[in-house]
Amino acid sequence: MDGIERMIRHKERESVLRLACEPLDVVRLGFVGLGVRAKRALERMMNIEGTMITALCDFVPENIDAANAIVHKYGGQIPVSYSGGYGWRSLCESDDVDVVYICTDWMSHAEIALYALECGKHAAVEVPAAMTVADCWRLVNAAEEHRRHCIMLENCCYDEFELATLNMVRAGVLGEVVHAEASYMHDLRKRLSTNDDGGRLWTNWQVEYMNTHIGNPYPTHGLGPVALAMSIHRGDRMKSLVSVSTRSVSSNSETGVELSGTMNSSLITTEKGKTILVQHCTTLPRPYSRSFVISGTKGYVQKYPVKCLSFAPDSDNIICGDACDEFLKEYRHSFVEEYAWKGRELCGRRWIDYSMDRRLVYCLRNGLPLDMDVYDAAEWSSLVELTEKSALAGGAPVEIPDFTRGRWDVIGDDSFAV
């Protein structure tokens, strides 16, 4: 047990595993940070029944104006606006907000989410939820103390292929899952060097962070769906990791701006002796991939670069293409049936964001536990600091805290259940 965990455990708190809060007839949302992702989320929320945008906050006046225009477009009342260095605190304190929806830079996520919880609000925070292990613990403690949800908005957990695989795992089709692979490979050289992601009006905080850190700063897109398939804190837990990063090399974009190009690979071992390979690279010319490999005693599933399946006893008989899609239909998740058509109509290829938000609203309005909880947010986000710690030590083993305080094997694996 490390020093932080010893400090935390001086006061035992009641767990928020499968936390159910009082139903909300209307989910009143306050948005902090109104950049590219938040504007998309506003469009989605304005198309989900039972929601109301009651407050907005941003440093940039143009962002507030654009957000108000979206609300007006869909017939909503113009929300109360907050600005300035600590406008978000006033938003969190508002009696007209139930959920603080946080779309700011990475380094501010935990501080805002923590204050929202302390103000008795639910926190919905973009990925990663925190950048340090200490902040992960603070989020867990606040969620437990104030009995409020803290969900990390990991949209990839709602993708069709990943949800079908989750159903396959729970149906025993793959046998016992013993290994998984997850990644975030995305050639972002042009976007990062120009600070352009459809009209950013704020600083390029991603480049600032990545040029001064090694390790994996963005682990959750790949790790989230894999952790759910492996029942992390729903029957197993991530116990330790080793991590290595390549040396920094010049990675010129088309603009001529130099970026620090590195590749990070981390190997996680679970309490029950299983493994997860997590990788990250955004500054080298690699095709997009989240890997998503699930390997069990009866079968194998892979999403990138080509979707395919194989099963015992003839594992060389690879099912791919149309045959793979046809096989997966049997395990199609009900969320896809219910949400995909509207999501595609509204968001196109980003329809999984709509599914994520609509499911969040549904659970809040019905007083149900959320699909992902504060322990997911803490466990997945803790890799930001822990992978860097290991990489700086030449790949030395690093322990992963048990944010559930020993409760990782207490409950059944029923997240994402209908």
3D structure, described in words:
It is a single chain. The chain is α/β, with parallel strands linked by helices. Helices cover 36% and strands 21% of the residues. The protein has helices at residues 3-8, 36-45, 61-73, 87-93, 109-118, 133-146, 160-170, 189-194, 205-210, 220-229, 321-329, 334-347, 351-366, 374-381, 383-392, and strands at 27-32, 51-57, 80-82, 99-102, 122-125, 150-152, 177-185, 238-245, 249-252, 258-261, 264-270, 275-281, 293-296, 299-302, 308-311, 314-320, 398-399. A 9-stranded mixed β-sheet has the order 16-15-14-13-7-12-11-8-17. Strands 3-2-1-4-5-6 form a 6-stranded parallel β-sheet, with helices on both faces. A two-stranded antiparallel ribbon has the order 9-10. Strand 2 (51-57), helix 3 and strand 3 (80-82) form a beta-alpha-beta unit. Helix 5 (109-118) runs parallel beside helix 6 (133-146).
SSE arrangement:
Blueprint: H1 3-8, E1 27-32, H2 36-45, E2 51-57, H3 61-73, E3 80-82, H4 87-93, E4 99-102, H5 109-118, E5 122-125, H6 133-146, E6 150-152, H7 160-170, E7 177-185, H8 189-194, H9 205-210, H10 220-229, E8 238-245, E9 249-252, E10 258-261, E11 264-270, E12 275-281, E13 293-296, E14 299-302, E15 308-311, E16 314-320, H11 321-329, H12 334-347, H13 351-366, H14 374-381, H15 383-392, E17 398-399
Parallel strand pairs: 1-2, 1-4, 2-3, 4-5, 5-6, 7-12
Antiparallel strand pairs: 7-13, 8-11, 8-17, 9-10, 11-12, 13-14, 14-15, 15-16
